[in-house]
Design goal:
The chain is α/β, with parallel strands linked by helices. It is built from 12 helices and 10 strands. The strands form 3 sheets. The chain has a 4-stranded mixed β-sheet, covered by helices on one side. The protein is rod-shaped.
Length: 484
Amino acid sequence: MSTTAKPEQAATPHSAKRSAALFSVLAAFAVTLLKLVTGILTGSLGMLSESAHSGIDLIAAAITFFSVQVSDRPADADHTYGHGKIESLSAAIESVLMLGSCVWILTEAIRRIAHREHLSLNFSIWPFLVLLLSITVDYTRSRKLHRIAAETRSEALEADAIHFRTDIWSSSAVLLGLFASYIGERFQITQLELADPIAAIIVAAIILHVTWNLARRTIDALTDATPIETRAQTRDMMREVAAIDGVISVDRIRTRRSGPDYFADVTLGLPRNLTFQRSEQITMAATAAIRRHLPGADVVVHSIPTASIAESLHDRIRAVAARSNLAIHDVSVQEYNHELHVEQHLEVNETMSLSAAHALVTQLESDIRREIPEISTILTHIESEPATIERPASLERDRQLEVRLRRAAAAFPEILDIHEVFVTRSHSGGADRIQVNCHCTLPDDLPMSQVHEIITALENAFKLDCPEVSRLLIHPEPATDNRR
């Protein structure tokens, strides 16, 4: 069901963007045609400049309609970040067209003022009606475009909404210029004859202002500049991610926008002894924190293993081994004569030759000394790790060995119980091997260091009494978990 719901959810914003862009195209075409006809009939430069402005609006609306058609296409092999940048590209083309209209309007207005050309107008009620209609249409479509742009996070629709909102002011300037020219001609006020070209200059200034803001935003979008509001969000994201348990540092958060989609690249410093599972949990928590500020963002988290302040000497030794993908155990550190001496166990594949195993250990010890120079000597016990699955000849209860094990355990008052004793017998390497497995019950509050000492002492005592047993495996469990 989830795979069916996703396309339906994705289709709704696209349909809303498409219908808003189509409505903008139709409205721009109608308004442009009315202004052009009215400007030609009246000879008003203000109206002609407004028709040129509306013509640019029509082209911009058509480009926006095309861009929203393309921008919602999914990512492909050639556009791995999707097609959202097409909206920024359409805004760039719109900026160039608007700048061209500014140059033409300013040139014509200055020429008419300087040479006193075409200052008389053919007045009628139609220019006023057309401008009032244009203001109404611009107000309606700017509100609709702004609402749809906010819902779908469309950069192209938002640019159109801002553009058409400023058209209201430019149309109002032309309306005021026409009215002033009409008053000047009717009452023979010569100074008001310049009202129409001055209104055209005001319109050009408004277009230039809109063009500058639009071009600046477009250049920022195309060059992946971080908007001011996103910078504040980034600071909030860094604080929120840094507060996640296990994160040592937030080295970098980078964001970029492609159309309505956001992409975030995060670099975190995590403890180098962290398990892979815990690292994945922190990554998911960081992703969720960023998406609370940038909903639906595509987040990539890069983690850097980092030495924490709370890291112990044992952790540092294990971290060096983990860097070489080696698992060491039973690490003990002793200090005598003001020097540190390390003893550790390393398991290698049973098929590895002695020379290869020795070279591996030599390299590991060298790496440990280089990173922890206070260590004087290192003794590594090399053990073979079975590469095959053992198939014991039998798995059975051996009453005699069980009695002898319980007798050895009786010497340790901390041991409350010995149960589930099983004996496995197998033939390996040309010799018979006997292994004893058991569960051992101990007090709940006994520290692990003491648990380890008791288990080791029990193993030694039992092997002295039963030398034929090659291995004794003891599983310690607290008294409250004893299900016998």
